[in-house]
Amino acid sequence: MNTLNGINDKIGKYRWTICALLFFATTINYLDRQVFSLLKSELEITFNWTDVDYANITSFFQFTYAISLLFAGRFIDWLGTKKGYAWSIIIWSIGAMGHALSRGTAGFMLWRGILGFGESGNFPAAIKTTAEWFPKKDRALATGIFNSGSNIGAILAPLTVPFIAKFWGWQMAFIIIGAIGFLWLIFWFWLYETPRKMLEKARIKQAELDYILSDKEDSIKPIKEKSTPPWYIEWGKLLTYKQTWAFTIGKFLTDGVWWFFLFWLPDFLKTQYEMTVEQMAVPLAVLYSMTMVGSIGGGAFPLFFINKGMNPYAGRMKAMLIIALFPLFVLATQYLGTYSFWWAIVLIGIGASAHQAWSANIFTTVSDMFPKKVVGSVTGIGGMAGGLGGILVSQVAGHVFKYYADLGYKEIGYTLLFIFCAFAYLIAWCIMKILVPKFKPIANL
Fold this sequence. Notes:
By secondary structure, the protein is an all-alpha fold. Helices cover 80% and strands 0% of the residues.
C-alpha cells in the first residue's frame, strides 16, 4: 500500500474517485435487494407465504437478474459505461420503489423482476469501468473496494429497514431505500468520463493517464480489422474460449453461496435462535462488517504475489486457492453455534468474507484475459451463470427447508446447505485451473 500511495502522490488519484462512485452504486444495489429478505417475517404473515413461496419470489428475481446479465454486458459495451450505468440504476431504483405497490405474490414477482433487470447492469458496468480506469495490477484492489459496497449495503439494511417498517410501514421501507439511487445519478453525471476525456478537461494529469494505460496490451492492435462495430463480438465467439468458461463455471458454482447468505441468513437466525428482525440488526451488521474486510483484503492479496514477480493471473489464482480454504470454517457453524449465536455469526462471517475476497479476484480474471471492449459482455455471460447458480441454490434451499421443517428438523436443511457453501470454492478453483492453467490473454477479438 505504501508503493500505491507513492504512485498516487506522484501521478494523481482521480481514478479512486471513480472507484468511490462504483462503491456507492454497489452499496445502493445491495440496500435495494436486501429490503425484501429483512421484511420476510412480516410479509409472510401479511400474505400467508411459506418458505417455498418466498423461494419462488427470490428465484424470480434471480432468474430475471441472471438472464438480464447476459444482455446487460452487451448493452454496456454498446451504449458506453456512462449512459449504460445510468440507465441501469434508474430502472432498478424504480423497481425497488415499486415493491410498495404490491398486493400479493404476483405483484412482488413483477417488481422483483424489474429490480433484477436493472441491477444486472451494476457489475458489468463497474468491472468495465475498472478496466478503463486501472491497470491490471490494481484492478483486483479496485474491484475489492467497490465490491465492499455490497457489504456496506448489507450492513445498513438491517440497521435501517426494520425501523423504517416499524414506524412508517413496510411500503415506506421500499420507497425510501429505493429513492437513494436517484441521488447517486447526480454525482455520476458530474464526476464520470473516460480517462482520455478527463485529460482533455484537465481533470487528470498526463502521468495518471499513462499509468492507467501502462499495460502492454493497451498498445496492441487487433490482428486484423473487423467490419463490425468495436463493441460487437458474437457470443458464440466468446464461448469458444476456455477463459470464458473458466470464469463462467467459477461464477456458477460460487455465486449461489452469496445469494444463500443474503436471502436466508435472517431466516436462519429466526429458526435457530428465535430472533426478531430488530434483534438481528447488530449481529448482521457485525457479519457484513467482516465481509468488507474480506472484500478489500482479498482484492489487495494478489499484489503480494505480483510484487514478488508473478504475472497478475498467476498471482490472482494463487491468492484464490488460499481464499477457497476459508469457507471450510462454515462447517462448524451449527456445532459451535449451540454455545452462542455469536459463533455462528463469526463462522458464517468468515465464509461470507471469503466469498467477497474470491469475488474481487474472479471478476478481475476477465480483464486479465480479455480486451476492454468485451469485458462487459464476458462479465455478463459469467454473471448470468452465477445468477442461475443462485436460483438453483435458492430453490433447493426452499424445498429442503420445507421438507425438514415438516419433519420438525429444519436445522438439518441448514447443515446440508452449509456443506455446499464450504466446498464450492475449492471445486470451482480446481475446474478453473484445469481450464486455464497459465496466463493466456486474448488479443485478436
